[in-house]
Amino acid sequence: MDDSLHNRIAADIRRRILSGDLQVGAAVPSESQLCSQWNASRGPVRQALGALRSEGLIGGGRGKPPVVLRQSISQPFETFMSFSRWVAGIGGTPGQRTLEIARRPADASVADALGLTEGTPVVQLLRLRLIDSRPTMIERTTFIEPVGRLLFDFDCDSGSIYAYLASKGIDPPHANHVIDAVAADTTDSSLLEIPTGAPLLRERRLATSVSGEPVEYSDDRYRPDIVSFSIENTESAHPALARIAERKTAS
Amino acid sequence: MDDSLHNRIAADIRRRILSGDLQVGAAVPSESQLCSQWNASRGPVRQALGALRSEGLIGGGRGKPPVVLRQSISQPFETFMSFSRWVAGIGGTPGQRTLEIARRPADASVADALGLTEGTPVVQLLRLRLIDSRPTMIERTTFIEPVGRLLFDFDCDSGSIYAYLASKGIDPPHANHVIDAVAADTTDSSLLEIPTGAPLLRERRLATSVSGEPVEYSDDRYRPDIVSFSIENTESAHPALARIAERKTAS
């Protein structure tokens, strides 16, 4: 992760917002306060505040003093990337704790999702993902065996699995995501530090190869007080069709 | 809604799947059973099964007997349209029960979302939305007053508010959606017929005019056992960027 001053200033304020130390509506320290706190010039301070504004965490600017707008981070769907890359991209520190990696026969639901016969060996990974050391998401990922076996040679706690697999030539170009909500089970509850039954934002993802073969199926559960998904779209000029004519990239 | 035979056959099977009468993995009645049940030829029966397959509710085809794949309906984000139009598009019958329409001063959170001063009059709508008479979603929508006042001349239970507003020239071309999960409150619980605290899939939407002015802000809560959102995307050939090069429309 980029260790420059503006990133460290932004990371510090982001951590204070996400931890609840700075609540919604609270004033963010002023430019001059931040300059003296960090012994910094205006440049890096303004850059840090600009980053937090573009993440939607703080408002203000154009003369208004900055205040906290919300305490969760949106993950734009316009970008399709790994959790690690996404967190690094918003200036946070991604973390991961691999709880299990196992080769086992596919059960019925996983076999169905991956288009395999029940009992075919697959590689399954259970990982806790963190933002700035805070438990944020649980990943239950199943890889087809020829792909998953590559992970036995990789330290899954060292960084992005997807970057590693891409370096091995495994880079599924297409994914389908289904998003819903589920109640936290006991595993979710203890790892994400929330009560059993608390609502979680779930993304189930099926990634397929160039030839359309399923490669990976994942059930990812996010704490909705930390992460939400955002999408922008634009309607056609012909409302009867209501199809998307153009799509803007979220900032 | 289209009352043709294939639509009625599809609606009947869809209702049986969504109600749990046909569980995941259960066999869907065969073509010949459906032909004799409906006194129909193969054409409409195949058309009905094809529609359910494209919605992802049933599998099979190519010689395999159809079975139920899942009991919730995906709402593709590639199409930006009203709930009514979406439900009609998948061959269901959309319904609505308007519980309240009120002109009142904007509270702090709504004023913030719409960029108004707190206390500015707005028009707020609380509606229960149904698919095939089943409570599916609760809409809490706030319109800026010049738009919302048009609704006092409209029977909000008669159909799509968005089609009506579009006919009046109000047709915001841009929307930002934020998706997360929340626990059902007592209103959600009684209207959606679920326990208090049950997880709901929430979409918060801010629609803006051509000139970028906020027009409408909505907090929509879906039963996740009935509706989920789906997104397909395609990765660029350059994984380091991980931007979308192309976007397929979900079927």
Summarize this, please?
The structure is a homodimer of 251-residue chains. Chain A contains eight helices and nine strands.
Largest interface, C-beta within 8 A: A-B, 51 and 49 residues
Name the assembly state: homodimer
CATH class bucket of the largest domain in chain A:
Alpha Beta
CATH superfamily of the largest domain in chain A: Chorismate lyase-like
Question: Helicity level of chain A, as a percent range?
Answer: 25-40%
Q: Hey, roughly how much beta strand do the residues of chain A contain? A: 25-35%
What best-fitting shape of chain A do the alpha-carbon axes yield? elongated
* Count of beta strands of chain A: 9
**What is the CATH T-level topology of the largest domain in chain A?**
Chorismate lyase
CATH architectural type of the largest domain in chain A: 3-Layer(aba) Sandwich
* Tally of domains of chain A: 2
Structural class of chain A: alpha+beta
Give the SSE string of chain A: HHHEHEHEEHHEHEEEE
End-to-end distance of chain A: 20 Å
* Whole-number mean pLDDT of chain A: 82
Radius of gyration of chain A: 20 Å
